[in-house]
Amino acid sequence: MNLLLHICCACCLCAPLQELRKEGFAVTGLFYNPNIHPLLEFRRRLKALRVFQESDPLSVIYYEEYGLREYLKHVDHEGNDRCADCYTMRLRFTTVYAQENGFDAFTSTMLFSVYQNHEQLKIFSENLAREHGIDFIYRDYRALSECSHDIAKKKMIYRQGYCGCIFSEYERYKDTTRELYKGSSLNKKDEEGVQNVFNIKNTLHRCDCL
């Protein structure tokens, strides 16, 4: 069975790819992630997947255009369903690509991550599979998460510290500003100014290029 595997990152690919191959799937990868920001992070993850290919040949379809505008267009970053919108955007693209290009089925490495909403991803994928008349391969490989990270470490593949979008990056690192300026000569007003730099909503609204 020809399987299109949406790849969110090289780190999440390592162990699941081995298991899918053991089951007899002919796997082709798809890198489509307009959610990954900022630009340098996007490039790091692209490079990480290419590094993976050097040690484990895998055919991968790459969408290398930086997707900031596409992400902001499709994701309600002011609401509570940001992650659901992001899942749907990437899974819908994967489903349509698989259906239009002769694949028998599709799945995603997002399902294999312990940091994602597994049940939501499963439901969205099943709905999209029915809508487009193609099979969805469901596997719960979350138990392989640590193994996948170990393989990535041995292969010296970049392992990211946050999900991908600029909001998850902000939420992951926002408290580090307190440590960064702890014990410095900044007064309270200066500290508030530093925090404002990291206020992502204000930053997006001020950006005239979006």
TrEMBL record:
Keywords: 4Fe-4S, Disulfide bond, Iron, Iron-sulfur, Metal-binding, Oxidoreductase, Queuosine biosynthesis, Redox-active center, tRNA processing. Coiled coil: none annotated. The keyword Membrane does not apply. Pfam families: QueH (PF02677). [4Fe-4S] cluster binds at C8, C9, C83, C86. Its EC number is 1.17.99.6. Pathway: tRNA modification; tRNA-queuosine biosynthesis. Catalyzes the conversion of epoxyqueuosine (oQ) to queuosine (Q), which is a hypermodified base found in the wobble positions of tRNA(Asp), tRNA(Asn), tRNA(His) and tRNA(Tyr). PANTHER family: EPOXYQUEUOSINE REDUCTASE QUEH (PTHR36701:SF1). Belongs to the QueH family. This is Epoxyqueuosine reductase QueH. It comes from Candidatus Brocadia sapporoensis. The lineage of its organism: Bacteria, Pseudomonadati, Planctomycetota, Candidatus Brocadiia, Candidatus Brocadiales. The gene is queH.
